[in-house]
Amino acid sequence: MSPEFLVAVIITIVGAATPILLAALGELVAEKSGVLNLGVEGMMLIGAVTGFAVASTTGNPWLGVLAAAAAASMTSMIFGFLTLSLSANQVATGLALTIFGAGFSALAGKAFLGRTITPFVEVFPAELARHAIWRVVFGYSPLVYLSLIMVVLTAWFLKSTRAGLILRAVGENDHSAHSIGYSVIGVRYAAVAFGGAMAGVAGSCFSLVLTPMWAEGLTAGRGWIALALVVFSAWRPYRLLAGAYLFGAVMTLELHAKAAGGWFSVVPPEAWAALPYLATILVLVAISMRRSGGTSAPACLGKPFLPTA
User: Fold this and answer.
1) pTM (predicted TM-score)
2) Which residues have CB under 8 Å from 159's CB, separation 6+?
3) Over the stretch 216-240, which tens digit does the pLDDT of each residue have?
4) Which of 6, 16, 53, 142 meets the CB 3.0–4.6 Å disulfide criterion with 251?
């Protein structure tokens, strides 16, 4: 195996893992507050089409990323209003949000089908990434470095800040947090908005970086993998990082297996395409068996908050 091939594999893994990591970080914060939002896939699609539309119109991919975050965050407020203000079922509402996002993105993206844009340029000068080894460190788009920074900031926020402690308290015992004067609904609205913004940025990563074009269903179910990854990581940011890169490696294996031919061609292409989702199911089953009834999930996850006073 040549160094160039190994570097190409690593870069592919990082690229495949980045949108999953971004979306999963947002969902982790939302779930830490006690909110289960299954609409990640829909918000990613809305972010993808919005980001592409704005970047294609303005020629500025950074504006596309910001617009994607804003659009997905506003979409998450629909979910927030229904589940937090009206106490609707979070599972059903999240599924409805995914269906809405898929339909809306397909409709809004019709005018942009077949268009391409200039993708992000690297953060560092091209001379630094000229050598194969240094390309592993300096050869990525800005969103890759953003995802790594967000892992560190999220871990610090949840563990070392007063606001993070309040958010975790709301997720573990909402009535106790309410009794000492914290706004449970307000904290959860903020967490849902952050989760939506991160899902939007993750979606824009597909349309602005990985495949700088728009196509219907561009995220290809990666939002569901992000949801599973939160459980896989036991709601811990650094485990989330490791898990995202693990799933990125599985998806990269699929791509290289299709291109390699040889004995890889014995397995049907559809089986390779299903591999990341099969791995997701196996991981969740393994986690369920290992816990033997115990769980590290926030105690109030998915439960509506109904104040008694």
Assistant:
1) 0.90
2) none
3) 889 988 999 999 899 888 899 999 9
4) 16
